[in-house]
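Pipeline run #58 for the internal structure catalog. This entry was flagged by the ingest filter as a single-chain record with no existing model, so it goes straight to prediction. Upstream metadata was stripped on purpose; only the residue string is passed forward. Reviewer on rotation: M.T. Logging verbosity set to normal.
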Amino acid sequence: MEERGNISIHTENIFPIIKKFLYSDHEIFLRELVSNAVDATQKIKRLSSIGEYKGELGELKVKVAVDKEAKTITISDNGLGMTAGEIKKYINQIAFSGATEFVERYKDASADKDQIIGQFGLGFYSAFMVAERVEIVTRSYQEGAEAARWDCDGSTEFTITAAERAERGTDVILHVAQDSEEFLETARIRTILDKYCKFLPVPVEFEGETINNPNPIWTKQPSELKDEDYKEFYKELYPFSEPPLFWIHLNVDYPFNLTGILYFPKLKNDFEIQRNKIQLYSRQVFITDEVKDVVPEFLMLLHGVIDSPDIPLNVSRSFLQADASVKKINTYITKKVADKLAEIFRKDRETFEKNWEDISVFVKYGMLSDDKFYEKAKDFVLLQNTEGKYHTLEEYKALVQANQTDKNEQLVLLYTTDADKQHAFVEAAQNRGYDVLKLDTVIDSHFIGMLEQKLEKTTLKRVDSETVDKLIEKDEAKESVLSDSEKEELKKVYEEAISNQHMTVEVAPLAPDDAPVVITLPEFMRRMKDMSRAGGGGMMFMGDMPDTYNVTINANHPLNQRVLKAEEKGKLARQAFDLALLSQNMLSGAALTSFVKRSFELMTKE
């Protein structure tokens, strides 16, 4: 028996077009062909289970073999197999129509590359991305079926002839093209199998060994698994990573199907978003690690696996963005993650606090980017103070309410972004009985703004943005030991000594044990500059503006009373100002040299 024919299409030869457009992803041919073989194997298993196939199943597996001399790659299965009629139906008609549809859509050279990458619905015909000729040798499971061979050289012509094959199943033989001989290297094939076929549900054999895990733990029930199983699986996914903090086992079958395991890695405060760590599968076939449309942005800090048959293999970015199931999956995962964190906080707060440094960036990022996540997370987000103690938002408000409410009934939360550099200000605040928070990660500047929006009658101030009396203004009159004229004279002395247009000098009656000179950068000014550096709309010009500081001279400090009586008022005032600069690491270069010389002069002066 021999049959020759033509596949009816408009394009004379579609295969170079397929190859051209998917060249950067042409390794997926192996995924498509192995997936087809797995599918055929599972179908025979299903037919056997319902009694429609009464023969021996044997050891069900898929084999991949490379023959470097013959320049062939063979994918073999002992699954369903096909008759000659089924070859014509499934290979010449259905599979080819998918390939031609792809070409019609993307043969225009100006087509959006981002939409092309990831468009994997080519199935069987992706074989021609690496092969100049493809053979199929197959025998159907049906009783009395004869083996058949299909042969095509990449043109629209094919032949179907009788073949020799003793057992049911299919061999797909790729005669590798000269420009694709890299795929004749066993190491290259192993790498591709490891990437795409690592968890296929049927054993895949290569070079005499099974290279996949057909029963990954996300296919099992949580009740069957121990902590060690989850840790071992994490090690299998990320061999060089530190162990995870904890994990979430996803398992839902309505209103969509989804299984998977998401791990919380150790993040610390560096906010290095390690994207592409969550792997997306469809029925254990790897699709992509570009999951930003399936998983909310902030959850991309997690690691792990998501498997959903509702996300088909021919996935594209536009599909993911528009698909209703994907949107539901996105919402579901967010809820599960929030519920898991709430559960850990409730059941084991000690462990939660111990891990807070690693997960705080993730939680805050989630609160900033997702209102529903915020509503859940506001009950377990933690604020750490400079003493190292943790409080929830409500706990912290209750702790500071009495002492840190200003004369306008605003609750003022004080924070430091650098406890060492801002130590003098932290200490001054603590001396007043105030509590100071540590908000020193990259994301905290955004987190602070969000808290001010969400919390009623609450404002946050960095401890070095005002003198301690102005941080939380109370209805308390401060008496000055200096008269108005003395204060005016002191201001003039300091203005001349400092002589800097970016320093605004004022004299105020602080406590005698407060510093003689306090240099602050107003909260509003600093935030505006931070926004402009981050590209805040309409404020780009502020990034180039020099900082404008407030210099507060403490009228009640003995040193300033001495300045007024000194022969060299300016020299002593400059010395006090330079000391204030030095305390904030703001003194350098020639100014530092002058300060050191002046210090020696004052110390040796009788």
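catalog note: The CA atoms of residues 282 and 312 lie 6 Å apart.
catalog note: The radius of gyration is 35 Å.
status: ready for reviewer M.T.
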